[in-house]
Amino acid sequence: MPRCAGLKPDSSQCERIVDGRSTYCYSHDPTKKEVRRRAASKAGKSKTPAGELRDVKAALRQLADDVLERRVDRADGSVAAQVLGVYLRAIEAERRVRETEELAARLDALEQQTSPTKAAAWHR
User: Fold this and answer.
1) Contacts by 43-48 with C-beta closer than 8 Å and gap 24+?
2) Residues 89-121: pLDDT tens digits?
3) Can you give the residue range of the structural domain that contains 96?
4) What distance in Å separates the CA atoms of residue 109 and residue 75, rounded to the nearest whole number?
5) Does a structural domain hold residue 44?
6) Is the Cα torsion angle 111, 117, 118, 123 positive or negative in sign?
7) Rounded to whole angstroms, how far apart are CA atoms 118 and 116?
8) What is the spatial distance between Cα 65 and Cα 78, in angstroms, rounded to a whole number?
9) Total number of domains constituting the chain
10) Looking at the domain assignment, is residue 25 inside a domain?
11) Which among 36, 67, 68, 105 could bridge 77 via Cys, Cβ 3.0 to 4.6 Å?
């Protein structure tokens, strides 16, 4: 069975088996580089903010319960809630930056697909 012609990060030969139609596995196929990058980008975006948001919501819920049950002092609970609020704003700011970067990259790709004359006219 043929093996992938790609090299692992330690420069050893990839051990994945490939079919007769390709020389490389999915991870090493140079024609799939952009597809892999987009998939990794989407995966990173979908996991991190949602997981962080879920964690902060759970912490706020627990904090509220602890304050109401008098396990946490109201002043300490207030400060903790403020810090968690700042954390949520940082998550949102990070999401906006990523979204802006993605839109800029998409716009650049669209501009490259148009003729150089039209792309130059858009920048005037």
Assistant:
1) 45/98
2) 999 999 899 899 999 988 888 888 775 555 455
3) 34-110
4) 51
5) yes
6) positive
7) 6
8) 13
9) 1
10) no
11) 67
